[in-house]
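Protocol step 4 of 6.
Sequence for non-specific serine/threonine protein kinase (Oncorhynchus mykiss) entered exactly as in the expression construct, tag removed. Do not edit the line below.
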Amino acid sequence: MTAYTMEELHSLDPRRQELLEARFTGVGVAKGSGINESSNQSLCSVGSLSDKELETPEKKPSDQRTRKRKGEQYDKGGARSHKISDYFEFAGGSCPATSLARGIPPLVRSSCQHSHSNPPVAVSTSPLYSDLTLEKLTALENNKNSDLEKKEGRIDDLLRANCDLRRQIDEQQRALERYKERLNKCVTMSKKLLIEKSKQEKRTCRDKSMQDRLRLGHFTTVRHGASFTEQWTDGYAFQNLIKSVHTQPLQVNTHNLEEDIERQRKLLGKRKPSTTTTTTTAQSLTLLTTPNTMEPPTAPNSSGTNKRKSKTNGQDNEALSLAEYHEQEEIFKLRLGHLKKEEAEIQAELERLERVRNLHIRELKRIHNEDNSTFKDHPTLNDRYLLLYLLGRGGFSEVYKAFDLTEQRYVAVKIHQLNKNWRDEKKENYHKHACREYRIHKELDHPRIVKLYDYFSLDTDSFCTVLEFCEGNDLDFYLKQHKLMSEKEGRSIIMQIVNALKYLNEIRPPIIHYDLKPGNILLVNGTACGEIKITDFGLSKIMDDDSYNSVDGMELTSQGAGTYWYLPPECFVVGKEPPKISNKVDVWSVGVIFYQSLYGRKPFGHNQSQQDILQENTILKAKEVQFPPKPVVTTEAKAFIRRCLAYRKEERIDVLQLAQDPFLMPPFRKALATGAGPLVSGSTPSTSSAYNSSASN
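Step 5 output, structure tokens:
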């Protein structure tokens, strides 16, 4: 019977057996966990209860119904004396390991739980002893509590700090809002004051212009057939000056006065003492000093002078004595000198009035263009740049003096307006090309190049560039006012231009300016003895690897653009393919600018228009430059101009060679370049000393 029962237990479904074991094991664990939660000492401090005995609960009568037949068989057989409840864990401690086994790992307890598969093994248990005492547990608990209190205190401190920081952030945010509001008020007030100042300056300029209209002159509209043209009428300053020239005591002008004085000098020459009278006087003086002379001197006329008959004006003129002649001649010389001085003063006054008149004409045109501009009412472009007043106007652009409200500085805003008749595709390509060039210009950083601060679009037909503002005028205006300059002043300007061109050719990719002319060279303080800055990179060419060849150069895609007086011959060659250009274009422009600064005129096509230059092929025929005799210029300067204006580009020096030219070098570098040693006594002066002496003369 026992063997049959064991086989029945072993033949039980493993899944059902597993569920059955889990059911009973779960109950025991649940009860054991409750015991663990009820006391911390039931598992850990059993050894500390040596003076106490475990109390066993009283045996309660069991209400369970027993299976008498099987129980009797087990009792009678004696082979298996254990009950089935011994194989499971109960709360009452029916397992032989007692309640202490609940603290033992499941691997140990498996002998009790799974004893139905293997014969039961007697396990001897002994109480577990720990080194922890109640004092140590109390100390650990106190330490843990103190650590917990510290952490809680730290958390409270961090929470308070967080609250303080949040409060500070809120305060800073409110302060930032106040500062923004205050800044907006300041910007608004600045705009208001700048606009008021600009309006006041405009009124002052217009009042002065009205006064100068009477003094210097004005434009009047004259009708010629079916068309109207503007004609200039001089003011009272020029009229009074012309009257003062013609209003003399004898009612003759300066030229007539000179002719009258020259005629009187000729008459005086006819009354000059004769040579016989002078010889007789000398002989008488000789006889007085030599008493042995036998012949008496010839007696002069009783009047002491010889009479000469002259038919001038039908009257006889008597010869003057030597003293009287010199007296009259000195008077005529003084009169001529005074007359020439007056003529020089009148000429200087006339030139001064002409310079002032040029300024007046320029201001009249500026006021006219400003009144007709769409940006005359002080708009703020790009929410940043406040336009103040018009500086000038070109073909397709206007330049305004503006104020940068963000950076708080004056700037020059150049407004480019495209031709409205262009197709949208052409406008887009032009705008894309311009933006590319301005991105390159914005990266340029050189003291001789005007800085580009910003560029942005206004609409499809216009865009703006924001440039560095310079107070002075350009070189073109200076030359119109003063005609020319000294060689030293021109050399200083050329040195600065070449320095900027050298920088443009040392960066990567290199840049060709292509539009160098006096109008694009700004004089910072308005004089020729100061610093200069190069501006207007609208036609500049970027020599990147895709389009530039170091041997042939790059193709000129914009043939016909630029200022013809300052472009080399290769830019005017017409063929099947576009001409090739390099940085030697700028070298030619440097030579033309230097020539014009020294002589007051352009070397080629001086009085011609751009259309005439193009039709007559003036630049293509400019194979050699001619120098006028005056003003006097050193041979070194002439040789420098010839090197810049070489007709064939293969014979012309490039920008880097131009920067090493001896004419632009300081004296000590020039001496090193030429290989000259130190001067000794008796040696000839160096080129630099000769240049300085000739320039000072």
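Step 6, annotate. DSSP finds 19 helices and 15 strands in the chain.
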